[in-house]
Design a protein that fits this description.
Blueprint lengths: L2 H10 L7 H22 L9 E4 L11 E6 L4 E4 L25 E9 L5 E8 L2 E13 L4 E9 L13 E8 L1 E5 L3 E5 L3 E11 L4 E11 L2
Antiparallel strand pairs: 1-2, 2-3, 4-12, 5-11, 6-9, 6-10, 6-12, 7-8, 7-11
Helix pairs in contact: 1-2
């Protein structure tokens, strides 16, 4: 009996036996991987029975993205420590929508009138997923009489989150302009969600104008 036959028999008698459709689909996946190896494109010797290579659909099979080890009793595979894992791109391309690494962003470069209560400077709609969200904010006072400035990323368009504990706070006397990076937000959502950059400013006289940006990186 071949190594592939042994693996199929093991899988049939293991955890997948209660769900034949799942068992067949998973077996087909492993069989294809093992046939790939035994076709001469992978390692030789005993390890060929439980190893497979994974990489791009084009290019030389001698340079895979990673190599895995099949665990028939569990129906899973693990990466060998000697391999570095997924390979990053080198062509200056952007990650497609839905892929890990996707990077939506928005920039508000024209001044928005900032009140003493939280005011929306800009906003970004973020699709379902697990994201790290970043922002920065800047305010300028028309008469250089600024007293205080606060800004934060928020899921509300009218309130600072966490009671204001994570917001950027700056103050002084006769401030002309001020700004900085905002505390990052971890966002894990099952539907498109709007993240707001909100700010508040207080001036002894004159007006306050705000600018800012939001960006996000899909983690998974």
């Amino acid at each position: 009996m071949s190594a592939i036959d042994d693996l199929v028999a093991e899988l049939k008698a293991s955890r997948f036996s209660e769900d034949p459709q799942t068992a067949i689909a998973r077996i087909d996946t492993f069989v294809a991987a093992l046939e790939f190896i035994q076709g001469g494109l992978g390692p030789s010797g005993p390890e060929a029975a439980n190893s497979f290579l994974a990489g791009p659909t084009s290019g030389a099979p001698a340079t895979p993205s990673y190599r895995g080890i099949v665990a028939p009793d569990l129906g899973i595979f693990t990466l060998e420590p000697s391999f570095k894992g997924l390979v990053g791109v080198t062509d200056a391309s952007n990650a497609p929508a839905g892929d890990v690494g996707q990077f939506p962003s928005v920039l508000m470069d024209s001044g928005v009138a900032i009140a003493t209560s939280p005011t929306v400077v800009t906003q970004l709609d973020i699709p379902a997923g697990d994201w790290d969200v970043y922002g920065n904010a800047f305010v300028s006072f028309s008469l250089a009489t600024g007293i205080s400035f606060s800004a934060s990323l928020s899921l509300s368009n009218s309130a600072f989150p966490d009671g204001g504990a994570t917001r950027l706070n700056m103050g002084g006397t006769a401030i002309g302009s001020v700004g900085g990076a905002l505390y990052p937000l971890r966002l894990s959502v099952s539907a498109t969600t709007t993240v707001f950059l909100i700010a508040a400013a207080n001036a002894a006289s004159g007006t306050a104008s705000g600018r800012g940006a939001i960006s996000a990186r899909r983690r998974r």
